[in-house]
Amino acid sequence: MLDKSLVAVDVTQEQTILNALPLAPIISSAAKGWNKIYVAYHRQPAWETPELSFAQHNVVIYTGQPVQGKRYSEGHSLEGTYTSGKIGIYPATILQRIFWSDEAEFVQLCISPQTLLYFVNEELNTHSIELAPQFAIDDSLVYGIGLALKTELEVKNTSNNLYLESAITLLSIHLLKHYTNTNTVWRQNTGGLSPSKLQSVLDYIHTYFDRDLGLVELAALVQLSPNYFVQLFKQSTGVTPYQYVLNYRIKTAKHLLAQSKLSISQIAQNVGFFDQSRLTKLFRQHVGVTPKQYRNQI
């Protein structure tokens, strides 16, 4: 018989979060259509959850004032102080109970075990793997990914699949390399993509760069997992797929600013940035001036 006091949390049904937490997230990816990862930003009062089981792996990136916390699971406990920058990993399907002493602010990243493995499945010697629980630890890479995805979450009405899926790939490979309960053998990536496969990918990018391209979409062209594709593409070109597409869009925007009378907003749409603010931000980062300043200098 199932324990009626056990709470199941499945973020694909966001309302189940309220079975474990007193408040809904301030903002979440539920309305964004992100189906490979769930991202939420929380501000929760002091709390102790009921015993619960997550359907997805949960990675928590703490961003608030220091709080004392404890995690209870299978007769064992982990405790520590969460300060801004600390992370926690709460694996899927494990029964656990979590406590924190004061108001807590954190970014929540949730990824299913199946998705985690999908992004790296050609590099591993297994189709099943368990993450090891972590509590109030330092991990600058995971912290950076969490903040980057929170920023992306806060951008209104803009799609950026390639950026999002690249972040998921980086997160997946890092979690599986550093926080598993089993020893894994990783496939060595050498040689890059074959010339014909590379050319097919580049031709596709040059044709459809104005769309919201995804990493999964590009990897499927050459029938590779996203992470293995990233590795081979970078070996062949010197940059990641995200960087290549970004550079190509900036290059095309520069051409249109110089050779056309299109508005900056129209150019943003035509090169796949979808809104002027994103074009302006990224153009300034890469060129050193805004699109308007660039056009005025010509």
UniProtKB/TrEMBL annotation:
This is AraC family transcriptional regulator. Keywords: DNA-binding, Transcription, Transcription regulation. Residues 199-297 form the HTH araC/xylS-type domain. One of its GO terms (molecular function) is DNA-binding transcription factor activity. It comes from the Bacteria.
